[in-house]
Here is the input.
Amino acid sequence: MHLGMRKIRFTGRTSGSVGITLPGMLQVLEGTECQLIVRDGPRPEIALQPDLALTPDLFIVLWRKIQIGLGSVGEILGFSLADFTLTIFSLQHWQERPPLAYVEILRSIS
Here is the structure.
């Protein structure tokens, strides 16, 4: 997903810090631990890779709330991440498995 172009800015001459202004749609990721990856080669790039290790646990908690909320409708089976495609953002179209968006889980717990 291409999120546009942004300029890198220095946050302080002596601090060694560099900042980048990200698109508004990434605001929900504020506070998420990210790995900074530099990919060298003919087209070098810097990538931020969010740590989504806790995501399955968050989805399980939300799934249990759904089970309780819809308990009167009938039994809802347990949560299995294998039944879904994990994404950062919601998808309008999907093929094999329904998507679960990381930003939705962040919105639900904030």
